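We emphasize that the prediction below concerns an isolated chain of 390 residues; any contacts that depend on oligomerization or on bound cofactors are therefore not represented. The input was used exactly as deposited, without trimming of termini.
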Amino acid sequence: MTVHPAFPIGAADAAPLAVRVADPLSLSDELAKAWDRLAEEASEPNPFAERWCLQPALHLLDPERRARLVMVRADDAGPLIGVMPLAPAVKYGRLPLRHVTGWAHPNHFHGAPLVRAGMEPLFWSILLGWCDAATWASTLLHVPRLTEDGPLHRALIEVVRGRGGEAETVHREERALLDSDLSAEAYWDEAVRAKKRKELRRQANRLAEQGAVSFRRWQPDEAVEPWIDAFLDLEARGWKGRAGSALASHGDTEAWFRAIIAAAVGAGKLDMRRLALDDRPLAMLINFLCPPGGFSFKTAFDEEFARFSPGVLLQQANLDLLGDDRIDWVDSCAAPGHPMIDSVWRERRHLVWVNAPLAGGTDRLRFRALVEVEKMWRRWKRAISAENSL
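Result of the prediction step, given as a token string:
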């Protein structure tokens, strides 16, 4: 483990040598194993912060090498208690405000760090104290997409209050979540209106008239590369391909996708499914299973067959996750208000973007000024909205 020169450790650190910035391309075997163990013992699962997913992202999706892989121990000889990618930022929205933020890329759908269960307050305390002492950090730590009222969110609020400040929630979102004790069949019947279920049965019957319809899950004893190729092709032929936002639209995102799917196989986290017509994929989806949770990472469908709703039919089959004893819930990773998944999955996951002030006197002054600016901005938006509704 090495200390990056832009992220020095100062004498004010609560635990000397407890924080290091590791080079993701040259991790020691000991660190790699420690990171993997941490994922298995984390208070909140997050595949996007696990080694098999984050390590390729830092290599392939951060060409300017702005992000830093921050690893936290209780002391230099103790176990790894937390991992979080951080990056310095010179702008906060449109404001010229230097701060530090949890690093993410467009396909990084959850911002929680990996933290050993029960050590959440210690992790935040050490991390914030380290940021206080670092010359590159100022004003605040911005943590995007924390699970609202989860152990990491609660611990961050507690630690910031203990430091004499208040953590500010600056944004909230909710997205579809699958979290039920019902069977797949009972859930489908309760979640989807009878009229819609009848229409979907009709569409499934019409589709069957076109040829042999099959649902399949990728199996660990088969090659995953053909599934990767099929998904990339299916997505690129749809609206994302036309918009230039498909994974295969850019070499770096395609390389990252290929790397993480192969790595997810090795980590035992991959659940990949398809609906096919005569072996032609009409819809595909990818889940990452990280007990006790799951994350529905990507989905794509063949728009030529949109009249048969292949994506919804595949989601119906995907409800068998409710019968997996390892999985208590599945995060859709979907945009808020997604018209398809919101109509099938009834529960909601609430996410928050949180700002934690750093301890320096000028940091606190800038933080308080930012809080006031954001309050004025929200009041102005409410006033404009009320005026437009008249």
